[in-house]
Design a protein that fits this description.
Blueprint (H helix, E strand, L loop, with lengths): L6 E6 L3 E7 L6 E8 L7 H14 L3 E6 L9 H17 L2 E6 L3 H11 L11 H18 L2
Parallel strand pairs: 1-4, 4-5
Antiparallel strand pairs: 1-2, 2-3
């Protein structure tokens, strides 16, 4: 049994972090928000907001999308993502799980299309939906739901 564990899903990008949360039964992921920053190097406010979300939702673990290359190699974005994950672990004390996020943005665009959101408006939502896709994939792979 999972004892009502909660996961925070993150889609880490150069200027945004999409955020999703699992339900306590680990059956589904819901999008929460997109944390935006002016520059890639400005990370302190992003980490602070993640801290607030962790406390608000009583999060037990984090799932961070890992942007693998299509040939299964890790490039510069993976290095930066792992660095961000290490910062999160140090700051929050929570375990960070990495989940292959290949095609999560593509899937997020498909979901937005299915919801009737015009392509020109996808930018407003795509990172949050991608975080939801990453977290849902993690839940299905690890909890079979």
């Amino acid at each position: 049994m999972n004892d009502n564990k909660r996961y925070l899903g993150l889609d880490f990008g150069s200027k945004t972090v999409g955020v999703a949360i699992s339900d306590p039964l680990l059956m589904s992921a819901s999008g929460l928000e997109i944390i935006r920053r002016d520059r890639e190097s400005k990370i302190r406010k992003t980490l602070s907001r993640i801290d607030e979300i962790i406390k608000e939702y009583d999060v037990d673990e984090i799932v961070l999308g890992l942007p693998m290359n299509m040939d299964d190699t890790e490039g510069e974005r993976c290095r930066k993502t792992r660095e961000f994950g290490e910062n999160l672990e140090r700051r929050t004390g929570l375990k960070v799980n990495y989940f292959d996020e290949r095609l999560s943005s593509f899937e997020a665009h498909e979901i937005l299309d299915e919801c009737g959101i015009k392509s020109v408006n996808h930018k407003e939502f795509v990172d949050e939906v991608a975080a939801m896709v990453i977290l849902q994939g993690f839940l299905e792979e690890n909890y079979g739901k």
